[in-house]
Amino acid sequence: MTPPSPQLFLVGTSHHTAPIEWRERLALSAEKQAALAATLRAAGTVTEFCVLNTCNRVEIYVTAVDPEAGSHVAAEFCRLQDLPEETFAAVALRRTNCDAVVHLFEVAAGLDSQMVGETEILGQVKTAYAVAQSAGSVGAVLNRIFQKALHSAKVVRSETAIGEGQVSVATVAVSLAEKIFGHLGESHVLAVGAGEIAEKTAKALRSREARTITFANRTVARAQQLAQEFGGNVLPFEQLTGGLGCVDIVVCSTAAPTAVITEGMVRQAMHERPSRPLFLIDLALPRDIEPAVASLPNVFLYNLDDLARLAEENIALRRAEIDRARHLVTGRAAAVWQKIAGG
Amino acid sequence: MDLSFLTTRTSIGIGTGFYAAGLLYGSWSLCFRHRHSRIASYAFVLAGWILQTYGLLLRGRQTHSCPLGNTFEILQFVAWSCTLLYLAVGPAFRTSVLGFFSATLATALGLGSLAVPAWDSVMRKPTFATSPLTELHAALGVFSYGVFGLLALTSLLYLIQLRHLRNKRLTGWFALLPSIVELDHMNLRLLGFGVTILGIALAAGRLNWSGSPEVVHLSKLAATIAVWVAYGTVFVLRLRQRLVARPFAIVSVVLFAATMASLWPVNASRRPLPPPAGAAVDRAP
Question: Which residues in A lie closer than 8 A to residue B170 (C-beta atoms)?
Answer without folding.
Answer: 176, 179, 310, 313
